[in-house]
């Protein structure tokens, strides 16, 4: 194995012992560490002194045997023992002291060996790999569950991806179906609606739509206002009708013969007169408690007070009526005259006759000057003086004022009639305009409702599209994250695979070294067997020739074994 830069050469403590016949000891042992964390043991065997049967390793073929075949072993058993030894050195957790005691290594190399074992164990733990390894490396047993898990995740992600593609396709069809209506520019409408922004040259049709919308809103406000006013007026009319019905009911109640009789009896005989009245008892409840009696007494006092007031008014009216009508006879006849058409009272007739007499007297005195009013008519001086005096009369001035007021009244009536006709025509035109405007408002309300429904649908679809797009973006982001994690996991697995491939190369190198060690051990066993045969011949000498040749051959064998022994420095 080529030298490594991270190689740590322990301090060696070589033992130079006198050779002992028939024994092999571990003279030198070195440990090398490769950059990949593997270990390489270099062992040097040879003869040594100070043999201790309790400490030195004993081999199975060390037994005394008269022939060469006694120390030989089965090649399969030897290979199994060598594989077991390598497995213990590579996989089992064997301390450095045990290795040193087993192979008689020096104490100076124990600490370094322990450090190398600890570093190798820590690196194997950090990489998540099992420190023990026996037999050939099986990729399926190590990576099978992980590969199956990744395959399942990949298949599930493919299914999800197909579903997402179908959803995207459906959403694309929906977006194509939700294209904006031709002729409606939403940006222009927004720019027109935004009055606080800068002025933008927009389409007159859009401006007209906005103006009509505002007009419809104002008309709707006025319409609601008028509806509220009409509602309040109707409520007020209903209240007044209820009050009128209530008053009419009271008047009808007071106008009944029973009420009048009760009032008359009260006026004539007091409250005691009503005690024997069955109608009053039925009306009043047949003599209730004191509280009801007090309430009835109070009500009776009020009615009596009202009756006295009405009686006084009736008396005054009768007196005025008699003064007005005059004459004698029954009152019914007088009242029938009053109810006739064109009737005038006596006082009014007297006043009119007095005025007529006064006017005729003035005309007689003035000779008709006051009635002619500037017409050419011959008058005397006396008539002119009488006319001047008449002008100073208060009644005449009052009559003139009345005449002027009558003229002004007639003129005013004519003007009011003319204005009334004009206002009536204007009202008719206004009613026609109001009717047409009402119809137009109804049409605009319908159009506005349709437009609002369309805008609501459009805005709702736009909001749903935004939500769907956001959800798809979020799902796409999550899928990217998953894909990134899978890529990172795959990268990590690829790095682990490369690391395992490197370890496989190291295993191949160790196997090559093991084969070299096996060849070296077989060569050393042959040498040992040869030496044992020589020792056996030395112990059982035959002829003098054999005695002379034996030691020389033994020395040559020892020299040959020393020459064939691998040099540790060369291997380093």
TrEMBL record:
Residues 209-250, 293-320, 413-440 form a coiled coil. Residues 485-504, 562-572 have a biased composition (Basic and acidic residues). Keywords: Coiled coil. The keyword Coiled coil applies. InterPro entries: CCDC13. Residues 1-80, 484-504, 532-572 are annotated as: Disordered. The keyword Coiled coil applies. PANTHER family: COILED-COIL DOMAIN-CONTAINING PROTEIN 13. This is Uncharacterized protein.
């Amino acid at each position: 194995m080529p030298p490594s830069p991270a190689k740590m050469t322990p301090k060696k403590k070589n033992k130079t012992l006198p050779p002992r016949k028939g024994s092999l000891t571990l003279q030198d042992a070195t440990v090398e560490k490769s950059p990949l964390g593997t270990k390489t043991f270099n062992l040097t065997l040879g003869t040594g002194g100070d043999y201790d049967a309790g400490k030195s390793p004993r081999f199975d073929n060390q037994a005394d045997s008269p022939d060469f075949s006694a120390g030989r072993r089965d090649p399969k058993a030897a290979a199994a023992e060598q594989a077991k030894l390598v497995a213990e050195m590579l996989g089992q957790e064997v301390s450095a002291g045990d290795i040193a005691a087993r192979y008689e290594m020096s104490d100076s190399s124990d600490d370094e060996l322990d450090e190398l074992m600890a570093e190798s164990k820590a690196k194997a733990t950090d990489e998540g790999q099992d420190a023990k390894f026996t037999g050939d490396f099986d990729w399926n047993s190590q990576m099978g569950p992980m590969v199956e898990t990744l395959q399942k995740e990949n298949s599930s992600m493919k299914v999800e991806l197909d579903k997402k593609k179908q959803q995207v396709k459906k959403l694309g069809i929906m977006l194509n179906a939700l294209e904006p209506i031709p002729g409606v520019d939403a940006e222009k409408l927004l720019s027109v609606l935004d009055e606080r922004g800068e002025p933008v040259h927009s389409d007159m049709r859009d401006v007209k739509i906005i103006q009509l919308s505002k007009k419809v809103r104002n008309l709707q406000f006025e319409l609601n206002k008028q509806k509220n006013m009409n509602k309040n007026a109707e409520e007020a009319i209903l209240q007044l009708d209820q009050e009128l019905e209530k008053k009419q009911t009271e008047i009808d109640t007071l106008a009944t013969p029973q009420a009048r009789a009760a009032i008359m009896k009260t006026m004539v005989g007091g409250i005691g007169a009503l005690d024997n009245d069955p109608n009053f008892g039925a009306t009043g409840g047949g003599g209730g408690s004191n509280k009801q009696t007090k309430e009835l007494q109070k009500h009776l006092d009020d009615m009596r007070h009202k009756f006295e007031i009405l009686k006084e008014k009736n008396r005054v009216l009768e007196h005025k009526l008699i003064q007005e009508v005059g004459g004698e006879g029954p009152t019914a006849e007088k009242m029938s005259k009053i109810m006739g058409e064109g009737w005038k009272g006596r006082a009014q007739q007297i006043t009119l006759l007095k005025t007529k007499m006064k006017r005729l007297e003035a005309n007689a005195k003035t000779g008709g000057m006051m009635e002619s009013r500037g017409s050419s008519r011959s008058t005397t001086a006396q008539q002119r003086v009488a006319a001047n005096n008449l002008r100073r009369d208060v009644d005449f001035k009052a009559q003139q004022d009345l005449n002027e007021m009558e003229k002004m009244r007639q003129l005013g009536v004519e003007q009011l009639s003319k204005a009334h006709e004009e206002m009536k025509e204007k009202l008719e035109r206004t009613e026609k305009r109001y009717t047409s405007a009402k119809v137009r408002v109804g049409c605009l309300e319908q159009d506005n409702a349709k437009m609002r429904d369309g805008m609501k649908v459009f805005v709702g679809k736009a909001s749903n599209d935004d939500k769907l797009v956001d959800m798809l973006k979020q799902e796409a982001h999550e899928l990217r994250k998953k894909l990134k994690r899978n890529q990172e996991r795959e990268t990590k697995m690829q790095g682990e695979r490369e690391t395992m491939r490197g370890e496989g190369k190291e295993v191949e190198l160790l196997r090559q070294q093991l084969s070299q060690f096996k060849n070296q051990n077989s060569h050393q066993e042959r040498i040992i067997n040869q030496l044992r045969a020589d020792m056996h011949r030395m112990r059982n000498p035959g002829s003098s020739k054999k005695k002379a040749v034996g030691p020389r051959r033994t020395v040559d064998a020892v020299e040959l074994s020393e020459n064939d022994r691998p040099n540790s420095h060369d291997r380093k």
